[in-house]
Write a structure and sequence with these properties.
The protein has about 150 residues and is mainly beta. The protein is built from one helix and eight strands. Helices cover about 5% and strands about 35% of the residues.
């Protein structure tokens, strides 16, 4: 069942989703996203991918940098949000938020909304690919996942 919200009754503060606040650790991610590129933090010494990003590698203490990833992977787990709970998505229920296991490394997981498919058709192990969309209410582009082309 889809929840209907009259946008005229939603206070201005709740019409848009929370906006990212880039910091030293996440700024490169958001700069790449603005160009529709998906990047993840990677150790420059041992090659370990890290999400969330860290300044130093947790395995070898090497320096890290953001590198581009393909944006393909499988849904590790997901939830279907049926109750309006997050500002900016009050009129978009139900929607799916997944943790996607990226192809670059086992256990390298990135959260994101799943779009382009009915919530009841989403399943763990489903192949997905990232694409970018505008985040309403600001100047950011965010990755979302959709079923991978066969």
């Amino acid at each position: 069942m889809t929840q209907t919200v009259d946008k005229r009754t939603v206070p201005e503060a709740f019409r848009y989703p929370p906006q990212p606040v880039p910091d030293a650790d996440t700024k490169p991610f958001w700069e790449a996203a603005a160009k529709d590129e998906l990047t993840v933090c990677r150790c420059q010494s041992c090659g370990l991918w890290m999400q969330p990003p860290l300044e130093r590698c947790r395995a070898c203490d090497g320096t890290t940098a953001f590198e581009r990833v393909a944006g393909t992977g499988v849904i590790y787990t997901f939830i279907v949000q049926r109750q309006a709970a997050v500002a900016g998505y009050l009129d978009k229920t139900p929607y799916v938020v997944a943790l996607v296991d990226l192809d670059e490394q086992t256990g390298l997981r990135l959260p994101g909304r799943v779009v382009g498919i009915a919530p009841e058709e989403v399943s763990c192990g489903m192949r997905v690919e990232a694409r970018f969309t505008e985040l309403a209410g600001g100047d950011f582009r965010v990755p979302v996942f959709s079923p991978a082309a066969s």
